[in-house]
Amino acid sequence: MLSLYRQQYGADGGLDARSADNAIGRTSLGLWDLVLRESLQNSWDARTEKNGKISFSVDEYEMSIEQTRILTEKVFRKLPSHCKSTDLHKHIFDRRIRVLVISDSGTRGLGGPIRADVSGTSGERRDFVDFVRNLGRSTAKGLEGGTYGLGKGVLYRASQVGLCLIYSQARHNGSVEPRLIGVSGGDGDYDDEDRRYTGRNWWGVPGPDGIVDPLTGPSARGLAESLGMRIPAVDDTGTSIMVVAPDFVGVRSGRDRVSAIADAALKWAWPHAIDMGKGPNIRFEFTADSNSIPSPEPLNHPVYREFASAYIEGRKRIIDPSYESNWQTTFTAIRSQKPKRSMGLLTHRISHNPVATGSELENSVALLRDPRMVVKYLPVSAQPSGVPIFGVFISTPDMNEKFAESEPVTHDDWVYQQTAAAKNSPNPVRIALDKIRETFRALSIQGAKAGTGVASKGAARVSAALGSLLSGFSGNGAEQQAAGSVEGQGAKRPRKASIRQLAESSLDLVDGEIVARFPFVVSGGRPGNAVAVRVAARVVTESGGNESASPADAEMPRFIGWMFPNGLLSSEDVLTVAVPSEDEITAVFTQPADAAIRVTATVEELEIARS
Fold it and tell me: What does the alpha-carbon distance between residue 400 and residue 147 come to, in Å, rounded to a whole number?
């Protein structure tokens, strides 16, 4: 049976248990996003090999009656007064309690000394005391994903009673040692029998001074197994954390809770779920009451595949600076001038799908530094075409420390004001963020200008997903009309028939196929006559010319038909229009993937014999 140790304030002061939780401060992130980000970051930082892979699992389940008895009688038998954990019994229903277990493998576990006042051997890591005993992070640990060591407070926040049971296997004195200890957090300090307590509590094996140490060896492993925890194999290292009576913030059930954590893994850790040829960096597994919940698959998701595709292309460009991607992808080096240095690579892609998804992440850039977790999605200017753009910024290795310094405890933003910079020296974080935003502002302005001018040589460039559609309407007056050039009602109708484009070309989905729409109107013509309207589409080469022949296996634009304002569609190749006419007619073509097209339209006036 484990014993309770309540920490008293020393004569020289101390920190209460809420310090770690309070340090998190205000954040736009939800509780389960925070839980995922903090726990996964700790697991990734603890990987056994720098370029190695890890497994990360989240399991929620209702303990059996026997497991609940063991938890309440052998682990948390004695509870402190004036704390959230005092009410543990209120969360037991039908002699059962729910728990959430977060575990990893391929990690080194919580090794090193078990007492915070022990220095340990030279060069020995202090993972156990840093996670279990201390608040904050030692500067000796250097730069890793979690730079503060205070975010672990969110794990206690995730428990309605502020309780966690920590089990870990780490190498100690040449062998793997199991360690198990109970910890509480999130409570304020209080007085009890003329003593003042910090609210920090541990459950373990009492030492000579009354301070508890972790239960170790086979007894620790056996106790963890009896509670149903997912733990490493006997000879492996890793850590498992049980959150007792998990909170219901934003969820209604255990499945909802695990699904929320799985969704957070997709949103913030998708770079590690991509198979770059040797399998994903992190193997995720999620279960709720023994039922599996889908793991992140970013390349199969309508939104995250856009970021993932940009990331993959960006990685290729970083590895090989001469690498050129397809027309959907644009690389922009983000650099500072004073001093001259590279800060990272911005890669953005035009969406695979021209139809807006409604996602809040449209027109945003995922900000990444080592260790390749998404710090934040930075909103950027939308493009005039309305087609979503998704980007990824990957910082250079020598800028990681500067970006990390700018992050709050939750690592969910780059706050340039927090970055140390010499007096009168440019702030590198501010410069990087400004240049990323300016890249998309410039694109937005260029796109807006392109959409309002008269088309050149019968070709109007239209920004669209899958490339720039080039629409050229030839014949009499075939160019797109400039803003304000529409004929006034009192203008004299031209006698010669002409055709003009009414608006920018647009993309749509018709029967599951991506199509391009080109709206135009016939003007002029001798009253009582008719005109024959013909359209043709060609693939455009990189130089802007038409593809003279269809490449082998290449998809070419296919004419679907004419669409009228009433929604009717005509598949006639040649459309006969009686003049005068101001009715809008729209030519519809299939839009080939990975290609830009140019469409031309001609009118031929047909004389009708008069009696």
Answer: 11
